[in-house]
From TrEMBL, chains A, B:
Keywords: Isoprene biosynthesis, Transferase
Protein name in UniProt: Acetyl-CoA C-acetyltransferase
Protein's UniProt keywords contain Transferase: yes
Coiled-coil region: none
Pfam families: Thiolase_C_1, Thiolase_N
Organism: Halorubrum cibi
Entry GO MF terms: acyltransferase activity, transferring groups other than amino-acyl groups
Record lineage: Archaea, Methanobacteriati, Methanobacteriota, Stenosarchaea group, Halobacteria
C-alpha cells in the first residue's frame, strides 16, 4: 500500500451556468486541477467520474469517455453513480487504485447540470435517488423525506427549527469569502426561521439549492510526487463506504444514518485515527438536519448533541470543530454528481492553508469529508491529513 | 496480489419479463450465483452493480442500495455505468478489489430492463450512450452508427452482407441449447440476408434484440476459496479497460476499435498470456459487424480477416476458436447493464464444463470476455483460466 496524495484540486464556480454544457464545466474543473497540481495530463492513467442524472438533464449517459476528452486525458474512464454520493464513490475507487499500486496518477471528480431543468424536472430528477416503487410513487420527495428524519430526530432527542436555522446561518457565513460558492450572502437565524415552509419542520433556508458545477482532483502516489517534484502536501489516509436500506420505511431509526457510521468507522480505521483527531469537516448538508445527522455519524458529536453544535458555536468557523467552512451544500451549492469531489477539494485547500477560510484553522492537520446519497442509503467518508 | 476466483455465477433467462421489476431480476440472478457458489451471502464485503438506463426505463437511479437489498447482502454497494459495458466495468473493479486484498468476497453483475419501453423509448434510451450534442441530435442511432462502421470495414478490407449473415446464423445456432437465451431458434444465412434492412448494410438479423435480464458473479480470493472449501476452479487472471473518443466523427478509422485493443493488451499483459493462448471467446456482438471488429481487436484474427471467420468455420462451435458459444448478444440477448457479467458467467460455465455447449470445447483452458460500450468508446476485456 502506498500513500495517496492530493496533487491538485479544481472547481468551477457553483451556481447557474445556462450557457455551459456538462463537458465545458468538467473541462474547466480539470484544467484548474492540472494547473494546481503541476502534473502533465499525459501522465493520467485512469479517470473516475461521478454523475447522477445526466440521462435526464442532458440526455447523456456514457459520460466518462466524453469527460476524458473534456479533460484532455487518454486513459480508461469510468462513470460512478451513487446519487448525491457519486463523486465520493468515484474518488474512493481512485484512492484505492493508487493505494493498491494499480496506478500512480488518477483524476477523480464529477459534474452535474441541474439548473437547465425546471423545478418540476429537477424535483423529478432528484427523486430517482429514492425508491421509485415504494417512495416516489407514494409522493415522497427529498424535502419530505428529510422532514421525516428531522421530525424523528426532534422526537428522539429534542431540538427545534431554531437550532437548524443556526446551521443554515453558519454555512452562509462560511460561504461569504468562497469564490466558488453559489450563495455569498448572509442569512440570519431570523431570516432562516422566517423563510417559507417546504416540508415542516424544514423551511426554504433549511435546503441546499439546485446547482450546476464540476469538481476534479489529481491524485498521485507519494512515490510519484517525490520522483516528479510534485507539491502534494495533503494525503488521503482513509476511505470508507456504507450502504443502508433504500426506503425510509425499511429502516428502524430515522434519527440516525448507519451507512455513514459504517463509512466513518471504515475510514477512521483505514487512517488509524479516531473522531477526536479531526480538526475540521466538510459534511453533506443537503438539508440542515443532514449536517446534524452527519456530525453524529462521524462521531464528532454524541447522538442527540449534534443539534446544538452550530447554535452553541462548536461547529462555527472559530469553534473547536469547524464544519462546512466552504459554506457546505447549503450555501456553496450542490451539483450532486460533483459534490463529493468538491468536499475533498475544499478540505485539501483548508489543510494546505490556501482556502479563504484557512485563517480560521491555522493549525488544522486532519480533515474529514462526508458525502451521502439519497436519504443516506449510500455514504462515503474520507480522511485527509497534512503529510509533510 | 492474490488470485481471483469465480466461485459462482447466476443468470436470469434473457428475454421479455413484463411482470418483473429490476430488483426481481437481480435477486434471481444473485440467488442462483449464491447457490452455485455455496458461499454465504453474509460473507459478501462489496457489491458492484452495472446498470445503464434505469433512470429512463424504471425512473430509478441510485440502484446499488436497492440491489444490495435484492441480493440479500449488507455491504457497500456501488453502481457502475459505462453504457453497454456497465457490468464489465463493475466486474473489473471487483476483480481489482479482490486482487488487491481489499476484500475476499465481492458480488458483481448487472441488470437492465428494456422491454417495458416501446420501440421509440428503447431507441431513445440506447441513444444516450452516444454523443448527444454531436451524434444523437444529428439523427444518429446505434444501427446507423454500426452501419457506418460496417461500411468503413467493407471499404478498408472487403467483405459482404453474406459474411455478416454467417455471424448471425452461427450465434443463433449456438443459442439453441442455452437455457438462458432469448432466441432459441435457428436462423439460416439466407433468412438473415432476407431480413428487412435497418441501416444498410445491416439488416434486422444483424442486430441484437431488446432484452430484460440480470447477471451476478460471486468472486472470491483463492485464499478464501481454499479456507472455506469453495469449489472455484476458474480464475480471472487478467483485466483491462480502454476508452476512445465518443463520437465516430472524432475517430480516424471506423474499421477498428482501439479501445478494445487497449483493453485486450492490458488484460493479456495482466494474465501473462497472448491471443494464441485463447481457446474460446465471448464478444460483444451487438451487431454482427461488432463481432468481427471484436475478434480483430482481441488479436484472434488479423485486421481484415475477422470478416471471414464465421463463414470459414474458424469461430463456429467446432471451429478452432469458438466465439459466442452462448449465442452472444445476437441470440442470447442483450440486457445492456447485465451483459458484461453474463459473458463472464458463460465463459466460466464453458471452462468448468457445465455449459450446454461445453461439449464443443472439452479441452478449453483459457477464455476471453469482451464487453463494449457505445460504438466501443468504452471496452473491457477479461481473461479467465482453469486454475485447478
Amino acid at each position: 500500500m502506498t500513500e495517496v496524495r492530493v496533487a491538485g484540486v479544481g472547481l468551477t464556480r457553483f451556481g447557474s451556468h445556462p450557457e455551459r454544457t456538462g463537458r465545458d464545466l468538467f473541462a474547466e474543473a480539470a484544467d484548474r486541477a492540472f494547473a494546481d497540481a503541476g502534473v502533465d495530463r499525459n501522465a493520467v492513467e485512469e479517470l473516475n467520474y461521478g454523475n447522477f442524472m445526466g440521462a435526464l438533464a442532458e440526455h447523456q449517459g456514457h459520460q466518462a469517455p466524453l469527460m476524458a476528452e473534456a479533460a484532455g486525458v487518454r486513459c480508461p474512464a469510468t462513470r460512478y453513480e451513487s446519487a448525491c454520493a457519486s463523486a465520493g464513490v468515484a474518488v474512493r475507487e481512485a484512492v484505492r487504485t493508487v493505494a493498491a499500486g494499480d496506478a500512480d496518477v488518477v483524476v477523480a471528480g464529477g459534474m452535474e447540470r441541474m439548473t437547465n431543468l425546471d423545478t418540476e424536472g429537477a424535483t423529478e430528477g432528484l427523486a430517482i435517488a429514492a425508491d421509485d416503487l415504494f417512495e416516489v410513487r407514494a409522493g415522497v420527495t427529498f424535502p419530505g423525506a428529510y422532514a421525516l428524519m428531522a421530525r424523528a430526530y426532534f422526537e428522539a432527542h429534542g431540538g427545534s427549527r431554531e437550532d437548524l436555522a443556526h446551521v443554515a446561518s453558519k454555512n452562509h457565513e462560511n460561504a461569504l469569502p468562497n469564490e466558488y460558492a453559489q450563495f455569498r450572502t448572509e442569512v440570519s437565524v431570523e431570516e432562516a426561521l422566517d423563510s417559507p415552509p417546504i416540508a415542516e419542520p424544514l423551511h426554504l433556508y433549511d435546503a441546499c439549492p439546485i446547482t450546476d458545477g464540476a469538481s476534479a482532483l489529481v491524485l498521485v502516489s507519494e512515490e510519484y510526487a517525490a520522483e516528479n517534484d510534485v507539491d502534494a502536501p495533503v494525503a488521503v489516509t482513509g476511505t470508507g463506504q456504507g450502504t443502508d436500506r433504500m426506503a425510509l420505511a425499511d429502516r428502524t431509526d430515522l434519527a440516525a444514518t448507519p451507512a455513514a457510521v459504517d463509512a466513518a468507522t471504515a475510514a477512521y480505521d483505514d487512517a488509524g485515527i479516531g473522531p477526536a483527531d479531526v480538526d475540521l469537516a466538510e459534511v453533506h448538508d443537503c438539508f440542515t438536519i443532514a449536517e446534524v445527522l452527519a456530525i453524529e455519524s462521524l462521531g464528532l458529536a454524541e447522538p442527540g448533541e449534534g443539534i446544538a453544535a452550530a447554535r452553541d458555536g462548536h461547529t462555527t468557523a472559530d469553534g473547536d470543530l469547524p464544519v462546512n467552512l466552504s459554506g457546505g451544500l447549503k450555501a456553496k451549492g450542490h451539483p450532486v454528481g460533483a459534490t463529493g469531489g468538491s468536499q475533498i477539494a475544499e478540505v485539501t485547500r483548508l489543510l494546505r492553508g490556501d482556502h479563504p477560510n484557512s485563517e480560521h484553522v491555522p493549525d488544522a492537520e486532519v480533515g474529514v469529508a462526508h458525502n451521502a446519497g439519497g436519504t443516506v442509503a449510500s455514504a462515503v467518508v474520507h480522511v485527509l491529513e497534512v503529510a509533510e
